[in-house]
Design a protein that fits this description.
- This protein is mostly helical.
- The chain is 57% helix and 0% strand.
- The longest helix is centred in the middle third of the chain and has 12 residues.
Length: 58
């Protein structure tokens, strides 16, 4: 989070100034994390919000 807030993180956070973490997953290795990130990026926005709401109810 510190890296993202300093402006050295992902392009998305730098472009849109978004710094609130609403969902995360942990993985044993970087390869699996990148694979999951690619999978989620291809999901429709409704599926992503359902995932967030299921794991992080307000």
């Amino acid at each position: 989070m510190k890296v993202h807030k300093s402006g050295n993180g992902a392009n998305f956070t730098r472009k849109y100034n978004v710094f609130e973490l609403i969902y995360f997953e942990t993985f044993e290795d970087n390869k699996m994390a990148r694979k999951r990130e690619s999978q989620l990026k291809n999901w429709h926005i409704d599926l992503k919000w359902n995932l967030v709401e299921k794991s992080n109810p307000i």
